Amino acid sequence: MDILLGVKQTKIGGLGTKMSNRVVCREASHAGSWYSASGSQLNAQLEGWLSQAQSTIRPARAIIAPHAGYTYCGACAAHAYKQVDPSITRRVFILGPSHHVPLSRCALSPADIYRTPLYDLRIDQKVYADLWKTGLFERMSLQTDEDEHSIEMHLPYTAKAMESHKDEFSIVPVLVGALSESKEQEYGKLLSKYLADPSNLFIISSDFCHWGQRFRYTYYDESQGEIYRSIEHLDKMGMGIIEQLDPMSFTNYLKKYRNTICGRHPIGVLLNAVAELRKSGLEMNFTFLNYAQSSQCRNWQDSSVPLVKHPKRLFR
After folding, report:
1. What does the alpha-carbon distance between residue 151 and residue 91 come to, in Å, rounded to a whole number?
2. CATH number, domain at 206?
3. Residue 22 included in any domain
4. Which CDD domains does the record match to this protein (predicted)?
């Protein structure tokens, strides 16, 4: 992959800018723990999972996929990535929630390159510059970027899905904060023009229900039977609402059930982007292809580590 050495403008500590021609690389900080650090082993794992998934509604223009460790979610995430068409995709937006730092807006990476055990991914600095000019984005530190897993967990799968055109695409990572409804609308409207472009792919990073006392969430509908079936019922209720592509209905669902969907704000941004495009008559649909849980909760001492759902999203 070509690396262009040039003059780049970077925000420092929230104040001022600096001019630098140094290429900044974000290391694959979760490799070796959340997924294999061995390129050959990781490649074999991804190929195995993808071989078990069906390409049913390709090409996808956006997908929702999980960010748990690959032991938990690798097989399920393959159902989403199987729908990606590398022959038409030239830019991959990755929207992930912030787990470690308080953030009320969205943030851009200070890096130029994201490393993976497969090959390096290049950030689209032209799109970054355009987003930065809006004044709506913060600049996260490299430490914050490397601590966060919600974006990184999609990098190996992105690299694998795009490997046949690996020198022909760039990525646009966006860390999404705890946005208000109005902010979700604002970012959705801003990103809608990119979503309208068939050469862009949007990856929305989200697990669904985090259940258990350690997550301070123990919603249980006894009429559904075992706890894990109650969780599945709750999640699939939310999934059905997402498939309606109505941001307000999704917001109301979250307010009513408080489901601990960690990527609710990236999902909200996507739904608002879709709503904006629908105003111009663009027809689209969304279908979830797979659902899985990291473990089956049967008593109050159990917990379901980010219940992994691995849906897929499509535009026509």
Report:
1. 15
2. 3.40.830.10
3. no
4. MEMO_like (cd07361)
